[in-house]
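// run 5 | inverse folding | seed 20
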């Protein structure tokens, strides 16, 4: 049976950035940089879910979800990323877990969804090996508190974004453009995942510890440079899947300078399950000098000969091509590359400039992608959950509040939750399929 859920992340919905001892994160700092966030906004209030979990819970119950994917804010739990725990932070997530369970909803936490404690960023961040060690300690302290009630865990969300948008393209925190650091960060994110999994399993071998990846179906246009296609595929998919499945890095990428003897042995086999976040395929074509934005994203693929992304319509407001066949290809591909590993769709959804009363385009998007999931599940693939992104319109990173992915809108000013047509549609879908 497939579990149907919705997903959010701490930084994007919580707000309450100074509440009860939370420390600053790298994203709080990034938001203060002129030009970093499209609408000049920040996440200091966001959806105010830190103070309004009651309202969010009511929405979850109304949807009838079997699971809620949320993330735990490291700087709320451990304000400087090492050393003392902030009791109020752990209490907050403890209460969320209890309240979800009391309502028959499985808590599905992610330990790191990009909000690194600023003190660790200043000490070198993910390019520094120490961050991976600190992450394992933080994972251990969370599991020691919540592990009696939570059995399935995601360590990292989309390490590609942290490593390559953060350190190569520089469009995400910490906004650095030094590709070698991106490869070091990638390695330490994988290492951090593996060390955390080891620590969590040492507490209880029954914990199912997975990693959430934004893998992509990579499609080559006829005129695309084959090497560019290979590098995009390797940085998007192989750099994560190959170490986890095979214990090696793909040939098309730089082997991280950060690699130590024994690391790959630790990483190999460390994912009890793999989460796939899928929004769009990547269509790789010849370079187009005049297309602003396209070139910028290409910087997230260091070592690739010149190329451009050539999405074909229909597009979402993110400029992302809508193509559910990409999800099918991707899931089949990952299940071959990671045989025997359970898979989950941990995010899927779309941003549209829609109205609350009529977001038919979002309903069409979700139903087409859910149909793929149902079909693959019926075909016998070990596909366990599907999470729609997102419960709420929220802080969409460098896009600020300009992109709306939610099943529920947030009224500016009052922050009142306003369910969209897609919310009611998904509730009906879940009721019919559960
Ligand atoms: C993913 C992120 C998530 C959200 C969606 C739209 O890359 O994991 O936080 O921003 O994209």
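// decoded
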């Amino acid at each position: 049976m497939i579990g149907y859920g919705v997903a959010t992340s701490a930084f994007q919905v919580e707000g309450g950035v100074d509440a009860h001892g939370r420390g600053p994160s790298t994203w709080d700092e990034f938001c203060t940089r002129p030009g970093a966030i499209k609408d000049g906004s920040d996440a200091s209030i966001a959806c105010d879910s830190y103070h309004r979990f009651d309202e969010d819970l009511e929405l979850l119950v109304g949807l009838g979800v079997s699971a809620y994917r949320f993330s735990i804010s490291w700087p709320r739990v451990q304000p400087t990323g090492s050393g003392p725990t902030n009791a109020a932070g752990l209490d907050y997530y403890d209460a969320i877990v209890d309240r979800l369970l009391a309502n028959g909803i499985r808590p599905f936490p992610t330990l790191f969804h990009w909000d690194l404690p600023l003190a660790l960023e200043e000490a070198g961040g993910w390019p520094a090996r120490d961050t991976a060690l600190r992450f394992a300690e933080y994972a251990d302290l969370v599991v020691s508190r919540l592990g009696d009630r939570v059995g399935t865990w995601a360590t990292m969300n989309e390490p590609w974004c942290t490593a390559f948008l953060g350190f190569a393209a520089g469009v995400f925190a910490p906004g650095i453009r030094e590709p070698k650091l991106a490869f070091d960060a990638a390695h330490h994110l994988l290492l951090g995942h593996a060390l955390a999994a080891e620590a969590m399993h040492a507490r209880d071998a029954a914990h199912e510890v997975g990693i959430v990846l934004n893998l992509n179906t990579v499609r080559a246009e006829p005129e695309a440079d084959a090497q560019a296609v290979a590098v995009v595929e390797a940085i998007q998919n192989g750099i994560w899947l190959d170490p986890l499945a095979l214990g090696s890095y793909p040939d098309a990428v730089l082997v991280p300078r950060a690699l130590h003897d024994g690391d790959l042995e630790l990483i190999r086999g460390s994912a009890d399950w793999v989460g796939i976040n899928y929004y769009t395929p990547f269509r790789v074509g010849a370079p187009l000098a005049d297309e602003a934005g396209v070139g910028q994203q290409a910087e997230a693929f260091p070592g690739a000969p010149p190329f451009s992304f050539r999405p074909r319509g229909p597009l979402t407001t993110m400029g992302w091509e809508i193509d559910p066949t990409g999800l099918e290809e991707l899931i089949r591909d990952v299940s071959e590359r990671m045989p025997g590993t359970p898979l989950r769709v941990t995010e899927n959804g779309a941003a549209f400039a829609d109205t609350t009363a009529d977001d038919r385009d979002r309903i069409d998007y979700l139903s087409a992608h859910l149909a793929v999931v149902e079909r693959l599940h019926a075909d016998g693939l070990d596909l366990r959950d599907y999470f729609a992104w997102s419960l709420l319109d929220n802080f969409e990173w460098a896009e600020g509040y300009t992109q709306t992915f939610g099943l529920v809108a947030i009224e500016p000013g009052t922050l009142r939750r306003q369910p969209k047509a897609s919310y009611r549609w998904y509730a009906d879908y879940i009721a019919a399929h559960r």
